Amino acid sequence: MNCLGCKLANKEEAVNVVYEDDYVCCILDHNPYNEGHILILPKKHIRYFDELDENTGKSIIKASGIISKAIRKLFNPDGITICQNGGVFDELTHFHMHIVPRYEGQDFAEFYTEDGKTHIEEVNKLEETKRNIIKTLNVLN
Which structural domain range is residue 37 located in? Predict the structure, then answer.
């Protein structure tokens, strides 16, 4: 199978992993809405939410909680949005959830700006963001 989501989740492509277990891999979004925008991807190919098996589903929920706690501590956002886009809105054609730190005044309906840029000014900060999230996760555990 030539699935980009599978390749990302199994680290066959360059990714910034912040957390993983036997069922999921959590990576920084390569084009983040805000610093700390993370994707949770199942390691096995799953396309739709209703195809999640029990272990993968539990792992996704567990990772969401762990990562949300780290995001709150590290970035102090006004809120966190956790969402999943399926069907034609899933450009990876592989189930994934977004965990996005958000700040008052941001209109999330406009996820990306018209010029394709995100709200984060320095996308090249991914390596630094990755280190900071991993460090925070280690402190919290």
Answer: 4-140
How many separate domains does the chain show? 1
Q: What is the pLDDT along the chain (141 residues), one digit of tens a residue?
A: 689 999 999 999 999 999 999 999 999 998 888 999 999 999 999 999 999 999 999 999 999 999 999 999 999 999 999 999 888 878 888 999 999 999 998 876 665 455 545 555 555 677 888 888 888 888 887
* Contact between residue 42 and residue 56 where contact means Cβ atoms under 8 Å apart: yes
Alpha-carbon distance of 58 to 8, in angstroms, equals 20
Q: Please give the order of strands across the beta sheet that includes 79-84.
A: 17-20, 24-28, 38-42, 97-102, 79-84
Would you call 119 a catalytic residue per the annotation?
A: no
Ramachandran angles phi, psi of 56, nearest 5°? -65, -45
Longest dimension (CA), the chain: 41
Catalytic residue among 37, 45, 96, 119: 96
83's tokens: 């969402």
pTM of the model: 0.82
Q: What is the CATH number of the domain that holds 108?
A: 3.30.428.10
Q: 3-class DSSP state for residue 17? A: strand
